[in-house]
Write a structure and sequence with these properties.
globular; Alpha-Beta Plaits; 592 residues; 9-stranded antiparallel β-sheet; 26 helices; alpha+beta
Length: 592
């Protein structure tokens, strides 16, 4: 190995460690690595910035806008709602719901689909006494499977398409992946409807847990001089045996009293930290002298007149809120909303609201104005998963909604017939949306996830550094030396497993960019079709089922479904193995 190869390898290993430890946002970490590679002279300025003009990356940006326009109409949500109402049995409902969801995910970004459908499914389940946990992981998995069907189904496919073009190879057509994607999706859905359904936990819905099993929110109550029970013990003050609520700590100046005993005396100025049912926490505010700390001037009483909404939001893995406390973030001034409770699955957070350091998947219960959803429903910082109606001022007319859907279908037709490339078709669609004023430039900017684009564009430079220094060739030779005696099929399984491992601990696009140079080197050494290797890597990079952090949609349903990390392993590991065996065997017979 040369010194340059060793330097790049150490840099990559450091990057992996930082990403796994969640020490910083993924896009910032990968962009930092890109800058180091450029400053060290391994990459020229043009090579470092090549990802920012890559066709695949720019197509992802345009697809964010197109998907946002279609979602904004609300027509797909309405159709899904009507479709669900006719369902009866849980498994029949799953089939009725997730087959079309997978089909839609083949042509639309799956993140907004899951964000939109999560509250709809939760409410449907709770109304019928069905555990939402039986439906929410399948919702995420169904959209991931559907994204494998076409080129535009997921950003990963477009990234690999862009890389292939950079390598001077033929890219994917719209339906290159379909021969693998449809069988994988059908087999995956059959698993979810049968064995997977049995493996899913039976976590009760929110309305049921109100009565039996509290969702553990953290909230802070301030004791004022008006409280009639000052000088009395916790038990005498009636704060001990509250329905579904537990007093875990009292903060008194610089002193923290935990655990709280029934004999602990309540004093003016005490901050009471409760965990449990948010409905009971709201009832406490009715007691004179107890004030709910929300970090905002609005209170729960404002909910009655409709001027304030109670919003449930899940912290994104790409969020700028990560690794900072709510107080440090100045949440109220930043979003004009108060955090009244925080829920973290399977973990009791022993801290007051302002001191809680946020992590991906945390559920935030917010008190926010009626315009909150209009401002932040597409924020990169969190996913709004409350069943809130979009304000009339934000809704498109039905005609505009149908026009956007027809326009999308028309663009798909032009790509299918070979009249336009995917990039040109999506660029034309966005131009038409702007000209006919279905969206404004400000709307278009809101729909784009710039942090995702930064991550993807930066990853291209890292892939270039691997090829330029010879690290990709070295890695390919190492893999071939081990796998050649076992045959081509074994090598395909090894490439799949390597890609899938990276996508579970890093991100799907990053995994694709790192492994594809290895795959192309292997294809050239073995004199086999690189397209088959590229398809294999595309499927493996998308097939993130084993952890909640590997794919955004898994994270979105993590909190609302009340899941634990182990639930993803139990349900996702068999599915991951099924998808791997199916995909590798199909690819082997088609391309090799």
């Amino acid at each position: 190995m040369t010194l340059e190869m060793i330097f790049v390898l150490i840099l990559l290993l450091t990057m992996f460690a930082v990403l796994i430890l969640e020490a910083a946002r993924p896009d910032v970490v990968i962009f930092s690595v890109l800058i180091i590679l450029m400053l060290s002279g391994i990459l020229t300025v043009d090579e470092a910035l090549s990802g920012f003009s890559n066709e695949g990356m720019l197509t992802v940006a345009l697809l964010f806008i197109v998907a946002g326009v279609v979602q904004k109409s609300g027509l797909i949500n309405q159709m899904m709602n009507k479709w669900l109402k006719n369902s009866r049995s849980p498994r029949g409902s799953m089939m009725r719901f997730f087959v079309p969801t997978s089909a839609i995910s083949a042509f639309l970004n799956n993140t907004p689909i899951v964000v939109t459908l999560t509250p709809i499914i939760k409410k449907w389940c709770e109304d019928r006494g069905i555990a939402p946990s039986k439906f929410l992981i399948p919702l995420s998995y169904a959209t991931i499977l559907g994204g494998m069907i076409t080129l535009m189904g997921t950003s990963t496919n477009l990234v690999i398409h862009g890389l292939l073009l950079d390598f001077g190879l033929e890219g994917f057509s719209l339906f290159t992946l379909t021969a693998v994607g449809i069988p994988v999706t059908l087999i995956g859905l059959i698993y979810l409807f049968t064995i997977g359904y049995k493996l899913l936990p039976d976590n009760k819905g929110f309305s049921q847990r109100v009565e039996e099993e509290p969702k553990e929110y953290i909230a802070e109550i301030q004791v004022t001089e008006e409280f009639g029970q000052l000088g009395k013990s916790v038990e005498q003050a009636g704060l001990r045996d509250l329905k579904g609520l537990y007093l875990i700590e009292i903060i008194r100046g610089n002193e923290r009293i935990s655990p709280v005993r029934s004999t602990t005396v309540i004093q003016s100025g005490d901050r009471l930290i409760f965990t449990g049912l948010i409905s009971t926490i709201a009832d406490l505010q009715k007691m004179k002298g107890l004030k709910l700390e929300t970090g905002t001037t609005i209170g729960l009483d404002d909910l009655k007149d409709g001027s304030i909404n109670l919003v449930d939001a899940v912290v994104s893995d790409q969020s700028s809120l990560l690794s900072k406390s709510i107080k440090q973030l100045r949440f109220r001034s930043r979003y004009d909303a108060g955090v009244i409770a925080v829920h973290r699955n399977n973990e009791r957070i022993k801290s007051k609201i302002g001191d809680i350091v946020l992590k991906p998947g945390d559920s935030l219960l917010l008190l926010a104005g009626t315009d909150f959803i209009g401002k932040y429903d597409r924020s990169n910082d969190f996913f709004v998963v409350s069943p809130l109606d979009i304000p009339p001022s934000l809704k498109q007319s039905v005609k505009k909604g149908w026009f956007s859907i027809i326009m999308l279908l028309g663009m798909i037709g032009t790509v299918t017939l070979g009249w336009l490339s995917m990039f040109k078709a999506m660029a034309l669609a966005v131009l038409v949306f702007l000209v006919v004023k279905i969206i404004t430039p400000q709307d278009a900017k809101k729909y784009i996830h710039f942090n995702v684009l930064l991550l993807i564009a930066s990853s291209f430079g890292i892939g270039t550094a691997m090829r330029k220094t010879g690290l990709a060739e070295w890695g390919a030779n190492m893999l071939l030396n081990f796998g050649k005696p076992l045959g081509l099929l074994a090598i395909l399984f090894m490439i799949y497993l390597l890609t899938n491992l990276f996508t579970e601990i890093l991100s799907n696009s990053t995994a694709a960019v790192i492994v594809l140079p290895l795959g192309v080197e292997i294809a050239q050494t073995l004199h086999v079709d690189p397209m088959g290797i590229a398809v294999l890597i595309a499927i493996a990079a998308s097939a993130s089922f084993i952890t909640p952090i590997g794919y955004q949609t898994n994270l979105i349903v993590y909190g609302p479904g009340g899941y634990r990390f182990i639930d993803y392993v139990k349900v996702g590991l068999p599915l991951s193995l099924i998808v791997m065996v199916t995909a590798v065997l199909i690819i082997y017979h088609i391309w090799f």
